[in-house]
Amino acid sequence: MYLRKILVRQLLRLYPAAWRTEYGEEMGSMLLAQPLTASVAGDVFLNAIRQNLRRPDPWKAAGLFLVCWRSFWIVLPSVFQFSPAAWALFVQVDRSVFVLVAFSSGCWTVINEGDVWRGGLTGWVNPDWRPCAAGRCGTADHPGPGQNDSGLDIHRDRPLPPRQKPGLFWVRFCSCFSPQNAGTLVRSPSRPLGENTFPEIRRPSKRLMAFREIG
Amino acid sequence: MKLDIALFAGVELGPGTLYSAITRLVDNGWIEPRGENGRQRPYRITMEGLERLQTQLERMQRLARFGLRRLRTICT
User: Fold this and answer.
1) Is the domain of A79 the same as that of A184?
2) b vs e for B3-18, b when ≥16 Cβ sit within 10 Å of the residue's Cβ?
């Protein structure tokens, strides 16, 4: 019975938060009142997907949009060759879009759903937002905090704070696609593999550093 | 509710499908919740829902009549 309750709770968590608030309790009691077979679980799962598409949580919609946005810019360089100036422009636009989407999605979640925790976390997705919020923005020529290998904030020469690790899967997933981590995913066709695409990312891997030392 | 649907329509709906349908009906304003009754929540059909239901049933009746007439013509 206890296991079934956990399963039902996990199945209900697939639905959007607003929907769960409205119908979660009665659907949960219905699921507990009948045997939880594979077909019932499948039915609930498929309809949860449908509900997520119909009325998605703003933070999920924002995450999906950012994933699509990033994927588009991963695919595009394989088709077209971009000049460095175009890439610089893209970096600026990319950052603006990430900040705008993350911030507005966070605000929407806080205002309309009163979910400060999730709203704050959505705004926290964007790594560029964090140094900006702390008044320590990095620039194209000058890497932001966390980018240098020394572990020091190059603007203030003090140890960097430990990187926050959000608990939600979606937040972590979206964070992989953020501009700060984009160098690991997007490589400019004009540069050979092994070099970073964006001018502000100058973090050679430990293996490359060891190779250079040996060389 | 599930039993009622199974009795009159001969279709057994899963809980996910049932609540998706309820959500859609509520969103369209064709039914409305009538207040809590323990864990269950009864729903009431609205005037707009009644009109819509009548239109749909009339259309289904017309379709069934037309289909039966065609079937009789083919059989004879």
Assistant:
1) yes
2) eeeeeeeeeebbbbbb
Q: Flag if A26 and B20 touch (Cβ within 8 Å).
A: no
Check: complex ipTM more than 0.85: no
Residue ranges and CATH numbers for the domains of chain B are 2-75 (1.10.10.10)
**Is the Cβ–Cβ distance between B56 and A85 less than 8 Å?**
no
Taking one residue from A and the other from B, the number of pairs with CB-CB distance under 8 angstroms is 40
Of A2-6, A59-63, A174-178, B42-46, the poorest mean pLDDT is in: A174-178
Closest by CA to A8, choosing from A29, A22, A18, A16, is A29
Q: What is the pLDDT of residues A191-210, one digit of tens each?
A: 445 544 455 455 566 666 66
Question: For residue B33, what is the enclosing H or E element?
Answer: strand B31-33
